[in-house]
Amino acid sequence: MHILLVEDDDRVAAALRPALHRHGMTTTRLDRGREAVEHLAGVDVVLLDLGLPDADGVDVCRAIREASDVPVIVVTARGDVEDRIVGLHSGADDYVVKPYDVGELVARIHAVQRRRGPEAAEQQGDRVVTTPDGVAIDLGRHTVTVDGAEVTLTRKEFQVLALLASARGTVCTRTRIVAEVWGRSWPGANRTLDVHVATLRTKLGRPELVQTVRGVGYRLGTA
């Protein structure tokens, strides 16, 4: 996923970009708002600050929305209700107030990207991910087969597997998996995730299919 970061604060950008990269994203950073519309090609999500030196971020958001349907998340220190309302009415898909938790921001990025539109949803729904060792994950029908035989998974087990399958072999961090599958985090979240992964490996009979990336998360071994 490619992120366009429109942020004039060098310290904020210097801290955020490596964090996004660790979550498997690439970034382009702009410190001016008026250039944003010219850099939308190939962008999956825009992170837009409102306090920009050359233009009001609300006007930039409106310009982006007129030019593209790319998801926009406003990331700003302006936390008043009125500011939130104006930002959302200007075309933003979500609104995050600084300071924020990076894990939550990443979850919001994935959430707005999933809601891009019916065409993206249909493309996602029609996909069947297959592995060389005979596992087929039908993302549209929510079914999994191993060597042609269907395997029964719980809803959460399938959601974990589907998320890893959709990542196409890239690493999904623990934070992302917990946020997207359970919608929240809690002190025992990592242990719960580990149990679900262990159960998946047992049910599928493919211990090496879901691979542990120590200190980071999991990925699907498709090769």
Automatic annotation (TrEMBL):
Residue ranges of the annotated DNA-binding region, renumbered to this chain: 126-222
Residue ranges annotated for the OmpR/PhoB-type domain, each copy included: 126-222
Modified residues (4-aspartylphosphate): 49
Domain of life per record: Bacteria
The Response regulatory domain, residue ranges: 2-113
Keywords, in A-Z order: DNA-binding, Phosphoprotein, Transcription, Transcription regulation
Pfam families listed in its UniProt record: Response_reg, Trans_reg_C
Protein name: Sensory transduction protein RegX3
Species, as recorded: Pseudonocardia xishanensis
Taxonomic classification: Bacteria, Bacillati, Actinomycetota, Actinomycetes, Pseudonocardiales
